[in-house]
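Chain A, query sequence.
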Amino acid sequence: MDATKHYSVALTVAGSDSSGGAGIQADLKTFSALGVFGTSVITAVTAQNTLGVRAIQTIDADLVKAQLEAVFDDIKIHAVKIGMLHAPEIVEVVADAVDKYSPGYVVLDPVMIASSGDSLIKKDTVAVMRRLLFPRLTLLTPNVGEAECFTGTTINNDGDLYRAGEMLLDAGCRAVLMKGGHLKGDRKNDVLLIRGKSPVLFSEKTVDTVNTHGTGCTLSSAVAAYLASGCSLEDAAGKAKKFVTGALEAGADVKTGNGHGPLNHFFDPEKLIIWR
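Chain A, predicted structure.
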């Protein structure tokens, strides 16, 4: 009998946030908080804080490819979370890696605009993302603005969320978690649409806080972490929604910087999961 022990392992492919609240840093914190061993491939380096993004430097596509190969060639990856892909050539490299290594789960958080309102993606990247990544994903997790960009529609309510989600399924996605966090109301509703299944609604109370930096990164990486741990997509999405709400509540009145502060990822950390 093989007595070798293994961690649940997730990989984040994303940009670095120097303030530590979003991107690679938020993803690794989320993986750790949920008991999953985190690995990383950095696609861009940003100079940013809680007030905004000051500069972005895209990592050369060849180096992104080398990072991906170094991780996949050596470590069993159970789930991949993809975040900031600043340029078309980075999208192409990531799509090639998904084809080459066939990870079990791929979650894309299509990071386009920071909480401060700063753009994080080149305009011509959107079309390449739709064409190359949509068919390869387990799940797409757009917020309202990102979904509007992909579909060309306006989203003002839950009904619009459903309609935009169906459009994204028609565009090639197998499953979409439509995030309604930017919509007004005393509840924050997310809708999970899976091709061939009935929609699932996840609803949590609105947390009154300015500390929302990295919320989208945290949600998508939480989904990836739960998938890596063996959860179904429906369970992973529901648990991730509750985790984000808990992290928002735990960090709601903590001041970090002078703008949109981070979540409290470690409000109830898990021990690192070990499988035999």
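DSSP finds eight helices and eleven strands in the chain. The mean pLDDT is 94.
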